[in-house]
Design goal:
single chain; about 270 residues; mainly alpha; two-stranded antiparallel sheet; 6 helices; 6 strands; rod-shaped
């Protein structure tokens, strides 16, 4: 083989291999430090696109689960308020029943009516002042709970209706207990109001169950999509540790080989002595 000093081919080959090994070593260190197999588009362009799409879906699903839980919180607030309304109405039943009997005098009916008036005022206060996140809970406007997976969307509509003594789920309590006749009429409407509140609480309970079910399904989707994203994006730590050892050794041997290649041509000087 002829000797040449124009180009040091072994040195160039050693440099190229050392550069490749150092790039692989750097990539391995990135993966180990981040825990991610894909740290740039150059690592896996298609995988990055899929993983980012899955991550966007997961983000939307997580917020949808929060939306559903917020809806549950709002409905539970309404249900708790209606439970107190039921207690008030049960007391009103007692007052109206007592006022309807002939053994009660006018002064007693006046006292009974005063308490009944207070009950109606408290129902008005509950209907007007019960709020969730600054919004009135009892409203004729339908609340739409928005759910999305990033690609498609849907909504669950919930409603509680307005609440006041003039409209307890549609029943008017605009009565007084000042006479036995009025008390008997009031008792009929109060009993209807009790039944209406029970029906409304049942509807609210069904909506709570639906939202909780939706939240459970969404949580399951998040789990599965997170596993899929991890399979694409996550680094195989055991493999990367093996690669780290491999490329460290190759880098060290490459430096030694480069040093040997650079010194090999010095033998030409001996021919000139």
């Amino acid at each position: 083989m002829s000797l040449s000093i124009l180009n040091n081919i072994p040195s160039l080959a050693a440099q190229n291999n050392l550069q490749t090994n150092n790039a692989n070593l750097q990539r391995t260190l990135f993966r180990l430090s981040s825990g991610s197999r894909i740290n740039s588009g150059a690592d896996d362009a298609a995988g990055l696109a899929i993983a980012d799409g899955l991550h966007a879906n997961i983000t939307a699903l997580n917020q949808s689960a929060q939306n559903a839980n917020d809806g549950v919180g709002q409905l539970q607030t309404a249900d708790g308020a209606l439970a107190q309304v039921t207690s008030l109405l049960n007391r009103a039943v007692t007052l109206a029943t007592e006022s309807s009997t002939g053994t009660v005098g006018s002064s007693q009916r006046t006292a009974l009516n005063a308490e009944f008036t207070s009950i109606k005022a408290e129902i008005d206060r509950i209907g007007g002042n019960t709020t969730f996140n600054g919004t009135s809970v009892f409203s004729a406007t339908t609340t739409s709970i928005f759910l999305s997976d990033g690609g498609s969307s849907s909504a669950i509509a919930t409603t509680t209706g307005a609440l006041s003594s003039a409209s307890v789920n549609g029943q008017n309590l605009n009565h007084d207990l000042t006479t036995a006749t009025n008390a008997a009429l009031a008792l009929t409407d109060i009993n209807s109001a009790v039944a209406n509140v029970a029906a409304l609480r049942g509807t609210i309970g069904a909506s709570i169950n639906r939202l909780q079910s939706a939240s459970t399904v969404i949580s399951n989707q998040v789990q599965n999509l997170s596993a899929a994203e991890d399979n694409i994006r996550g680094a195989n730590i055991s493999q990367e540790v093996a690669n780290l050892s491999k490329f460290n050794i190759l880098s060290q041997t490459g430096i030694s080989a480069l040093a040997q290649a650079n010194s090999a041509q010095q033998g030409v000087l001996r021919l000139l002595q």
